[in-house]
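Schema walk-through. Below, the input block comes first and the output block second. Nothing else is stored per chain. Lengths vary across the set, and this one has 288 residues.
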Amino acid sequence: MSTPRKDDVSGVDTTGHEWDGIEELNNPLPRWWLWTFLACIVWSIGYWVVMPAWPLVADHTRGMLGYSQRAVVADSLAKAKASQSGYAKRLAALPAGENPADPDLQSFALGGGRSAYAVNCSQCHGSGAAGAKGYPNLNDDDWLWGGKLADIEQTLRVGIRSTHPDTRLNDMPAFGRDGLLTLPQIADVADYVLSLSHSGAVSPQAARGQTLFAENCTACHGETGRGNRELGAPNLADGLWLYGGDRASVIASISESRRGVMPTWEGRLDDVTIRQLAIYVHSLGGGE
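--- output ---
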């Protein structure tokens, strides 16, 4: 049982608690601290009355002032849109494929595009737009459907193999899965395709693959393998590969086909935002 006593040194009563010879003095709180504490209690009661504070089953108390943080945010967004409306109208009036000549309008387009990219595109193409296996690098000059500003904007609008009725679409046959070529033939074609971007003597396998390539692939990729952007057929002679440029990856692409999908952004983003996004992607260095 604890027994309070008066401390011999300070003359203050103890609380009676003792541990290993250490006792606690029963000093009262400073008066200024006590009054501050009481003032905070009074202030909190006033806050509950005038501001939204208490959650209810399906709602919350509104407070006498009727303050709403959501209303403040909505008002801020409305003011921001109103201040940008002039730039937005000017950007929308530009013909497709034309870069803004006015530095302020260009800055508006790049700023909005950068923000739209971070929210909608960085998940696949990366924060620096360098892409990954199966996701195009937007910084280089290797474009399946064209890298001009108008081409980029159209691709953003309709997507690739998307649900849009005018989507970019041209599927490569799965030569192995569909039984169009045997595995040895596919390997020969892969050797020839790899030889297009490598200097040196052509192997006998690649020579056989060249004949098969001419019979099965030139309609889309061209006789020299440099592709066709109207069809979305990639350039096979530049050494840039979307799904990997090693022999096994090329064989897999020929055998199974690659049918990557990019969503259509028309209807999900407004026309001005799509144009801002196109201008931003075009500015990354790979735009033509």
